[in-house]
Structures are given as structure tokens and as C-alpha cells.
Amino acid sequence: MSPINKAALFDLDGTLLDTLGDLTSALNRTLGKNGFRSDYTRADVNGFIGSGALVLVARASGLPPESEECGKLRLAFTEEYRSDLFTHTRPYPGIPELLRELKARGVSSAVVSNKDDSCAEAIIEHFFGGDIAFTRGVRAEPERKPAPFTALEALKALHTEPRNAVLIGDGITDAGTAKNAGVRFIPVGYGYTSPEKLRDLCGVRPVRDVKELSEAVFSALGVK
User: Fold this and answer.
1) Does the model's pTM come out above 0.90?
2) Would you name the residues annotated as active-site residues?
3) Phi-psi map region of 191: left, alpha, beta (phi>0 left; psi -120 to 50 alpha)
């Protein structure tokens, strides 16, 4: 009988890393260069994120997301963001240690993100290196969470069945992704969505910090 492979699938923004500072800076630079309002705060941008770069720039600029101009602005934002990914971005306290502990105890970690795939891979490699076994961002719009595409691709890459995995995230789209992929969901309350909103959606209290997250992940996967 082959061994049971267990996996933890992580959202990126607001779950593993606080990326809001670099996202805000890149967005304001892009908007300013293209004649739009360019003084958004972290709190403003927090209200725009969660559904990918196209929706982000559409919300900030007021352009229809399906418009050609918005598509061009999205490409400009992605290039601007890619040029400076690490200035303000930091792991949440305890995350590097958790990833190393998961690896040491035989649990594979993956990232499934609505961030542009090339940006997601660069950020994860920079901060976590080999402690993340697989990273997948978005390469085409149909892959975007809450579609299960990235989660299912991660499970396939890790040779893991949905019943032997958990998905950890701070957003409504993460909860939907977990449901659509048939994976148990662990909500985190320290990210970019209010704990109250997540609790109302999921029916369970989100974990308050990485210590609680660690306990929840190992318990859900039955890892001693």
C-alpha cells in the first residue's frame, strides 16, 4: 500500500505574507503614471484586493474590468509590481517556522493564489524557498479562485487526495475554492478579511494567529 500524502494548501496574500504595502505602492505608481487618482492607502487597497489584479485596478481606477483600457492598466500594474516585490512584504510572525515544521513532519505545503503566477513564484521562492513544494498563481482568468483549478493542480502535483489536504486562507474566495475542490477549509482571522465576516461565512471561528493555525492544521490532517 502506498503512503498517504498529506498537504497544506495556502493562500498567499493575507495568509502567508503581508503584501499590502508593496501592492499599494505599485498600484499608486501605476495609477499616477496613467492619469488616475494615486493616493490610495493600505486600508483602501485592502478593500480592492482578493479577486486578482484586473479587479484591483478596475476598482481603483473606476474603469470597467472588461474594457481594453482596464486590461492595459492591469498589465502595467503587473509590471510595476513585479519590479519591486520585496520592499515592504513580510511573512506573518511564525509562518516560516510553521512551514519548516510541516515539512519536517511529512506534510507538503503548496501555495494557490489569485496573484499573477510569475509574481507568486518569485515571492514564494524569495521568502520560503524549498519549504514550499509547489506554487501556482493565475495564468488565465478561468483559473482564478474560487474556481478549484489551482487547488486541484496543487493536489495533483503533490500526489494528494482532497480528503488528505486542507486549504488555509483569509478570504471569501478561499472558502469557495476549498468547497469547490472538496478540501477542508481553515480560515485565518489575522489577514485581510474581518474575522467576523469569515466566521459568518464558514460557521467556525477563524484562527487568531499562527500558533492556533499550526494546531488546527496538524489536528485536521491527523498528524501527531
Assistant:
1) yes
2) 11
3) beta
